[in-house]
Specification:
9 strands; alpha+beta; 37% strand; single chain; Transcriptional Co-activator pc4, Chain A; nine-stranded mixed beta sheet; 3 helices
Length: 169
């Protein structure tokens, strides 16, 4: 049995491929603005130990919400499925298992033939296990996200008056 899961891909010229991406080459940065950055990647929805389906994901980070990253699963039908969680959770998950509850992250595990970051997303309607290439995510976090808002400087970028207004209303 192969250590790489079987793949499924949409009909068309792409055919089955472990590197399939709706965005073209894996790790392509969609855009970077003065206050925000995005990273588009091809990933895999893990269906079973032997079967996965290609999918496209988009990471987003904004100085306006300095504690969180969002992960959009591009479905081809609007709206995309969006998950938001702590930027530190993603950073920690690149090095060691991290998270409790709705979002759990495991780093690549080369000893078991898994080179990707694995993310478990749980919601009231079900759960999804997604594999995403780790190197582009690590580079994006370290070179773009932490450049916008350095680690442990997040509180300096929060508009506390606005946040208090939300809490009081």
């Amino acid at each position: 049995m192969s250590s790489r899961p079987a793949t499924a891909s949409p009909a068309g010229p792409a055919g089955p491929s472990a590197s399939f991406s709706w965005f073209g080459s894996p790790g392509r940065r969609a855009q970077s603005q003065p206050d925000a950055t995005e990273l588009e990647l091809g990933g895999r929805l893990v269906v079973s130990a032997d079967f996965s389906i290609p999918l496209a994901v988009r990471w987003r980070y904004s100085r306006a919400d300095p504690l969180a990253v969002s992960l959009d699963v591009v479905t081809g039908v609007k709206p995309d499925v969006r998950w938001a969680f702590a930027r530190d959770l993603l950073w920690d998950g690149l090095r060691a298992p991290a998270g409790l509850g709705d979002v759990r992250i495991w780093p690549p595990c080369p000893c078991h033939g898994r080179p990707d970051l694995r993310i478990l997303l749980r919601g009231k309607d079900g759960s999804a296990l997604v594999d995403i290439p780790s190197k582009p995510v690590r580079t994006w976090l370290s070179k773009e996200c932490f450049a916008l808002v350095p680690h442990e400087a997040e509180a300096e970028h929060i508009d506390w008056e606005t946040e208090m207004g939300h809490m009081m209303s």
